[in-house]
Amino acid sequence: MKKFTSFIAIFFSLSVLNALKAQDTDLLKLVEDTKSKKEIVKNAFKSTRVINGHSMEFLRPGTMDLRILHRFGQLDQGYKNFFGLDQASMRLGFDFGITQNLMGGVGRSTFKKELDAFIKYAPFQQSTGKNHFPITIALVSGITMNGLEWSDPTRNNYFSSRLAYYFQTILGRKISGGFSLQVTPTLVHKNIVLLESDPNDIYSLGVGGRLKLSRRVAFTWDYFYVFNPLKDNIYHNPLSVGIDIETGGHVFQLHFSNATGMNEPTFITETTGDWSKGEIRFGFNLSRVFQLRKRN
Amino acid sequence: MKRFNMVLVVILLSSASFGQKYFTKNGKINFDATSPNSPEKVEAINRTVTCVVDTKTGNIQFAALMKGFEFEKALMQEHFNENYVESDKFPKAEFKGLIDANDAVNYSKDGTYAVKVKGKLTIHGETRDVEANGKMVVQNGKVNAFADFTIALSDYKIAIPGLIADKVSKTAKISVACQLELFNG
Fold this sequence. Notes:
The complex is a heterodimer. Chain A is mainly β.
């Protein structure tokens, strides 16, 4: 009988223990998914442009980005032109997010009265989890149309002479939460160039990056090295440094740059400003994203 | 005596499975943090909430991936993940609690039972005690769990900048709706 009572005692203590254990068991562990799902890395850049050049970032599907770009006059003009703010060149653009990895846009610049359009597609996007991929590879193809009067109306002018094209590959990675870096080999093709000795195909390599300073502010830079610059003028490699500020609905990209152009053929091949001579301009990109298509 | 021992052992072993567990991976959590005068709604729904209830002990636990919250506007969703709850750093919200007076709920009989749940809620890496009134609806062997409660965003170190204070409220109303099924694991 003694044996029996001890058994009862063990039974009760065990069941009490059982109940106690249940209080801090992790029930969620029982149903947890062990395999991690593939997830695309987002927000490598605040905007779809680093400053002048395209970034590895894409618009969300069903959204439209209204972009208003301003480039002011040179800072070295002093107070007479209010450090360049009296003169402004602008571009008005509309970009559309089509799918997660496809977007396009159109724009009109006052500089050379140019119309431009581009399409950007990423066959591979940086991702984490199952079957992850370390970098984003995106391809950009664009076209620009010069809207100025012909410089020489007496010669035989073709419409195709107004056009220039660019093809770009973006190789980018969000290296950490606060730091992203990309390189962008770019080919610009101009149907017409000023001098016979000028190349029609201009090769360049861009480097762009972002360093987050706080949740809503980031430091950005954007540089293109041009391998075979045009010779009809003294052109310089475009360098821009700036600050991205995100206010909730808008992204402001404030920057200093030696470039005036706001599409690839102009800022890569036709930048005349020289940083070392103080030929720098203030400029900003204002981006406002609208939801066009309802979700869910 | 030997036979009697055997019976005891069987009882002992089976005591572990007396309590049944119910679960879902498609529970819904909705939150609304819209300021009274806001022109746009600041609300989102997560349809992939995991919930497990142990009917014996009254333990109830939830887990929701922050990136699973869907907003009407893509940009709002991006800002939610990037600037407010920092989903890359804190991917999950979790609740671990107990159903008060769990004995009053008869999980094997159809009916609606008002319950109170107390426990710890973790969002954005911050854990706070919360209490919520809810109900358990038992129907055809399934258990539906519902609850509504409000949290203060500042408790979870989610900062709302002054610039958008007219859109995003300082508190969020949270509604939970989960249809749970018997867990055979």
